[in-house]
Amino acid sequence: MPLKFDKKKCTGCKVCQIACSAWHEKVFNPEKARIKIRHEYETTGLKIGASTCIMCGKCEEVCPTGAIKSNGRWMEVDRSLCDGCNICVENCPTNILFLDAMGKAIICDLCGGDPQCVKWCAKGALSLVEKKVKI
Amino acid sequence: MSSFFGKMLYVDLSSGEIKTKELPKAWAEKYTGQKGLGTRILVEDFDIDIDPLGPDNRIVLTTSLMAGTIVSSTSKLAITSKSPQTGMITDGSVGGHIGAELKYAGFDAVLITGRAPELSYLYIDPDKQEIRSVPDLKGTGSFDTESEVKKKVGDKNVKILTIGPAGENHIPFSCISSERYRQLGRGGIGAVMGSKNLKAIAIRGWLDVTVHDFEKCMQLAEEFHEKDGVTADDNEIYQYGTPVLVDLAQESGLLPTKNFSEGRFDDYKNINGESFREVRQNKKACFGCGIACGNWVKDGDAAVEGPEFETIVLGGSSLGIGDRAAIIEFNALCDDYGIDTISTGGTIAYMMEMTEKGYHDFGIRFGEKEKTFQVIHDIATRSGKWAEAAGGTKALSAAYGKKDIAINVKGMELPGYDPRGSYGMGIAYVTAPRGGCHMSAYPIALEAWGDRDPFTFEGKGVLVAKMQNSQFAKFSFGVCDFWPINSETLGKLFEVTFGGNWPKEKVRETGERVFNLQRMFSVMAGFDEKDDKLPERFYKEVLKAGPPAGIKMTAEAFSKAMQEYYAYRGWDEKGRPTIEKLKALKIEDSLIDMYNKRVFI
Predict the structure, then answer these.
(1) B415-482+503-601 topology per CATH
(2) Cα separation of B291 and B231, whole Å?
(3) ipTM for the whole complex
(4) What residues 102-141 of chain B have any CB closer than 8 A to a CB of chain A?
């Protein structure tokens, strides 16, 4: 059940990242978000893109301790099994995985099914789609 | 917990000293963030007589104390300094992401003084703050400077303030750019950066921002965004952005045309909200902002994020240019060279009218767009045929006369509203602490596009003073102008972020305190009632079309309204804040003593 990003609707405000960090960490810090937006001018014009978990399953596949598993709707990390080896981070094709201050893998969990990024995006640039997206 | 870090970065570019200083919480409680805090930091032990372009001038960056939180429209960065354009204290704000970025870097403020031995940029992150030489960027435009500094830092997420050639050449209306098209346009702080050999400031942050009451903050933000239409799809600022004002200004007969000689522009439909929407590629918001005012537009080869209403007027109708692509080009050139579109357009309009009417041949007439582009180059580089335009309308009219059509107040060119179509706006122009500017109050919304009579000064002194107090509160608490937020809502949001009790009266009083603090320093710099004047054109000539047609604005009625304004403010008849008033506003005794000795003793 990955997130779908509509770049025509995105204004680059990154409230999705703020809301993500707020919901999960109870602080405001877009660096700690499980979604990343790029929306900036380059010499060739305005470049827009989003990194989100696309449910590709690569992290599950490469995790040596079996800490990451799909529950069919999102990826789950068993923090007791995660040893912070960083292999999932290195292999994530959308560069959206990261390790937190405790050295445990952090991945989008769709806020338990009610993603805050979708809720807070004022312009409808994010939505949930039912079908798995191919890379 | 509070959203206030209490930390200010102090940078002396002359000695290279960089240190983190504690920021007094008492200042935050009295002046809050952005405009108020920036002004307070600037004036501490500050000599108002210093040369604005000398090493002793200061540049103060301040965030909103709600920046980086979920509260919308709080990510602008305020910058305060002594203006090389007016000689008064000036402050402005630049949009984009950089205000929030400074917050995430762990600072509420940055104070920069001195002069770097060679062209440099300042790098700031939570762990490291450094002055780095960039002699290779000499003369580089704002856009390329940003790209180059980003490469040098090696981090695509860094946010950057830059100046173009204009700032390096000390043009008194140089702006400061961020993310290419977001400008701190007015007052010439770009020239102050240039005088300090400071080509750019690069900021990167990754720290947590916390607030006083997290759950309440999330709840109130959601509630108030909804209540005030911040996130609404049908918000006209989202649908069109500020170009939506062109039709309103035309209808009201106050759309400055050909250097304010007329109030209606025949070609307005080519340059209105609908027209710019036709060539819009994308919307663009500042960090965390649900409004998304920005428009990324492209017309042929011309592209810009903009143009804002003021640029459309000063680079369009006031120059007799009704060509959409030409206005986009005008905007992009000013941004890249690093000059304010309003002052640039105002200066060119003066030269055009002087030429047309035969007062002096500047070699440029209304409607000449190619020459206009050349003037932008000559101003920014202070070279070529139009080099002397770099002085702005005040300097040009001192040399060539016709001050009545040099449309500026205290050396700052006027923005896009003819005060003959909105008398309150005239009072706002002359009393705005930074000079001829529309940001201190916007009575036009009640007059020209509301139900107050626009053509009387009756009651307008009091109206403008009240609006200014609210605006100064809004810009000190640090919320963008495009959120129509009231003092009660501001106070409630501040309570859950910064902490404390903030009833609406206290919010407004904060605005009034900041306004008076800035006025104190204007008075100390020698400005008073004698300078609170509009260009004579507005009394001498009547507009001929639309609602203001044939109505004469008189200097006598204006002066009477000004005395009402001063009296309401608790100022004397010369427009000087009284000691009693300043004490009642709880401005610090040390500042009041300095003011008293200078002005009254």
Answers:
(1) 1.10.599
(2) 6
(3) 0.96
(4) 104
